[in-house]
Design a protein that fits this description.
The complex is a heterodimer of chains A (375) and B (283).
Chain A (H helix, E strand, L loop, with lengths): L14 E9 L2 E9 L4 E5 L6 H9 L6 E6 L2 E5 L4 E2 L7 E4 L11 H11 L4 H14 L15 H13 L5 E5 L10 H13 L5 E5 L2 H7 L2 E6 L2 E7 H6 L4 H6 L3 E8 L2 E3 L5 E3 L1 E2 L8 E6 L4 E4 L8 E14 L2 E7 L12 E4 L1 H7 L6 E7 L4 E4 L3
Parallel strand pairs in A: 3-9, 3-10, 7-8, 8-9, 15-22
Antiparallel strand pairs in A: 1-2, 1-4, 4-5, 5-6, 10-11, 12-13, 12-16, 13-14, 16-22, 17-21, 18-19, 18-21, 19-20
Helix pairs in contact in A: 2-3, 2-4, 3-4, 4-5
Chain B lengths: L1 H14 L16 H21 L5 H5 L2 H34 L5 H8 L1 H4 L2 H12 L6 H8 L7 H27 L2 H8 L4 H30 L2 H6 L10 H11 L1 H22 L2 H4 L3
Helix pairs in contact in B: 2-14, 4-9, 4-11, 7-9, 9-11, 10-11, 11-14, 13-14
Classes of the chains: A alpha+beta (375), B mainly alpha (283).
Pfam families (chain B): BPD_transp_1
Membrane topology (chain B): Multi-pass membrane protein
GO cellular component, one term (chain B): plasma membrane
Chain lengths: 375, 283
């Protein structure tokens, strides 16, 4: 167990891991590192080895070769024969399913970890209630899991995972099983409780948005190997593997949150809807799907919309639609580079567009989400 | 346990098909005949007992010394045997459900043996093992002067022998249903295997344990063959209710019927209290 109580900034320890595990028809061979307080997202298609990786970090699987260090503690080292059992690792887990203990109340669930560490009942329950308040479910403290919604259960599960003050927290698609309605609030909560609290974490996800909002850095895993890694926005805006390109198929504009939406570093304002966790002044990204971008040859007039001058860089046929890739116009902002717009082949013909043409990308403010996104 | 069962039955009722509209795919009508016969085979003998009973003499018959001795002995030995089943069979179920040794599958089929073995054969086997000339019995006799057969301890052993599989099977099922996921979560929260077992696993399988214990208790109460072979039929020491029923059948049929009805009542109570899903999934 790491020093420092739950919720205090910088509870996390650094992670350093090199893991090799071979199974019939599958091999995992990765190196990972996360600085103290950093959130590392692991993206990858099904069968890429994400679950195996988490199993090894949690101590539920023993790798064939390699080591795992959390802070200064070696918890796995095959060469030295070290395999610290799961319950002595200080590695917490929040999975897709909340898996709250059905026979315990919310308080009982959250107090379980501290109790296991020898904290007296009264003290453990006091801490549990505090944590439940921090995840906004203080009112449910004395309820059993069966009397809570999926989103509420997941909040309690987060409080429970944080309660022992883990050096490393593993997040295994923590939003995947939630209702669409419950997801944004839980995502904001995770950001507040994990990223803002400097809790070192490894986040496995399928969602580019989750990675963008929650993670500092990303590794992309395919076939048991790391195929891409780097700062989240860099990896997602310049995808190099087909998998990343597919899941990242979103337009991203970095900047600072402001009242209208987002202000880029060169002062352009992109209007959009902020999620509840984003306050003016936060570093943020504006996110919109390429299908929401309309393309004009001349600047249109009308409802409040974002109007971006671009130079057409590439035309990529994608099934029924054609993806237009933007490049910067001379003297214009460079952040438009790489933005994509999906339009019909007929529209391309109408525009008479070809690489090098000057065009306007137009996005309705209602299609643009503004998400706080650190670094 | 009751709350769990209540919740379960409530949810089952909620999800039950709407009978007025849901016609389903139908049932071959021919099945109704053997099904009705099977049901009759179970119900009619019990009804027969009720008709045959001499209700006027009932109090006298049930309160005789022999009957009270037998009832007391039956309840006492069944309770001890059930406790033994829990203490020994509980851990066995955990090992079978969670152990990773090779050959556990073989072991599981051996555990089921008393379910399919004629009880009288089990009784004989116990006698040959623990009898005064038996493999273990000789040693016990020489070293400690202990003789097991034809004592109350023998009744308990015989009942434990036949009832053990009921507890093990239903508890093992509960353990498998609960799965290992909660235990894994407990481990990531810092709970040692022992703590996770005590605070998570045991409470989760408590309903399964309770229903297994009820089944085992019922089986103990009804035990006849192994008891008579291994413990004999001595009033107050080894003559349990079923043995008394069999004995009275020769001399006083009314008494046998009265005692049988007593056993029927106990059985009905047991079914009412402990008829959970484990009975349905037993064999």
């Amino acid at each position: 167990m790491s020093p420092g109580g739950p919720g205090t900034p910088g509870t996390g320890s650094g992670l350093d891991a090199a893991i090799s595990l071979q199974r019939p028809g599958f091999g995992l061979d990765v190196e990972l590192a996360a600085a103290p307080g950093e959130v590392l997202a692991v993206l990858g298609p099904n069968g890429a080895g994400k679950s195996t990786l988490l199993g090894v970090l949690a101590g539920l699987l023993r790798p064939d070769a390699g080591h795992v260090r959390v802070g200064d503690t070696v918890i796995t080292d095959t060469a030295a024969g070290v395999h610290v059992p799961a319950h002595r690792r200080g590695v917490g887990l929040l999975a897709q399913q909340a898996l709250l203990f059905p026979h315990l109340t919310a308080v009982g669930n959250v107090a379980f970890g501290p109790r296991a560490a020898g904290v007296p009942r009264r003290e453990a329950e006091r801490r549990a209630r505090e944590l439940l308040a921090e995840v906004d479910v203080a009112a449910l403290a004395d309820r059993r899991p069966a009397q809570m919604s999926g989103g509420q259960q997941q909040r309690v599960a987060l409080a429970r995972a944080l309660a022992p003050g883990p050096g490393l927290l593993l997040l295994d698609e923590p939003l995947a099983a939630l209702d669409v309605d419950a997801t944004p609030a839980m995502r904001s909560l995770l950001r507040r409780m994990i990223r803002d609290a400097k809790q070192t974490a490894v986040l496995v996800t399928h969602s580019a948005l989750d990675a963008l909002v929650l993670a500092d850095r990303v590794v992309v895993l395919t076939g048991g190997r790391v195929v891409e890694h780097g700062p989240t926005r860099e990896v997602l805006t310049r995808p190099r593997s087909p998998f990343t390109a597919r899941i990242a198929g979103l337009d991203l504009v970095p900047g600072t949150a402001c009242a209208e939406g987002l202000r880029t570093d060169d002062g352009t304002v992109v209007s959009g809807r902020s999620d509840s966790a984003t306050a003016p002044g936060d570093r943020a990204v504006a996110v919109f799907p390429p299908s929401a971008v309309a393309v004009y040859a001349e600047p249109p007039h009308g409802s409040p919309r974002n109007l971006l001058p671009v130079r057409l860089a590439a035309i990529e046929p994608r099934g029924d639609v054609v993806r237009l890739r933007a490049g910067a116009v001379d003297g214009g902002p460079d952040w438009v580079e790489g933005l994509a717009a999906d339009v019909t082949p007929a529209a391309v013909a109408d525009l008479g567009a070809e690489p090098g043409s000057a065009l306007w990308f137009v996005v309705k403010a209602t299609e643009v989400g503004i998400h706080a996104a650190g670094s | 346990m009751t709350t769990t069962l209540d919740q379960e039955s409530r949810s089952r009722r909620r999800s039950a098909p709407d009978r007025r509209h849901d016609t389903g795919v139908g049932l071959p009508w021919l099945l109704w005949i053997p099904a009705a016969l099977a049901f009759a085979l179970i119900v009619f003998p019990v009804l027969g007992l009720l008709i045959k009973a001499d209700w006027a003499r009932m109090p006298e018959l049930l309160l005789s010394d022999a009957a009270l001795d037998a009832l007391r002995l039956s309840l006492l030995t069944a309770a001890i045997s059930t406790a033994l089943c829990i203490v020994l069979g509980g851990p066995l179920a955990v090992v079978l459900a969670r152990g990773r040794l090779r050959g556990l599958r073989m072991l599981r089929s051996v555990v089921l043996l008393p379910l399919v073995l004629p009880p009288v054969v089990g009784g004989l086997a116990l006698l040959f093992l623990l009898g005064r000339t038996g493999l273990v019995g000789r040693g016990l006799d020489l070293a400690f002067g202990i003789t097991v057969p034809f004592t109350t301890a023998a009744v308990v052993l015989a009942q434990t022998f036949v009832a053990m599989p009921f507890l093990v099977v239903s508890l093992e099922g509960a353990l498998r249903t609960a799965g290992r996921r909660y235990e894994a979560v407990a481990a990531t929260l810092g709970a040692s295997p022992a703590l996770a077992f005590r605070r998570i696993t045991v409470p989760l399988v408590l309903p399964g344990l309770a229903s297994g214990a009820v089944l085992a208790f019922a089986r103990c109460l009804g035990e006849f063959g192994a008891t008579i072979a291994f413990a004999g039929s001595l009033q107050g020491t080894t003559r349990t209710l079923p043995l008394l029923v069999y004995l009275e059948r020769e001399t006083d049929v009314d008494a046998a019927v009265a005692l049988s009805l007593l056993l029927v009542v106990v059985a009905v109570v047991v079914i009412a209290v402990g008829r959970p899903r484990t009975v349905e999934g037993l064999r």
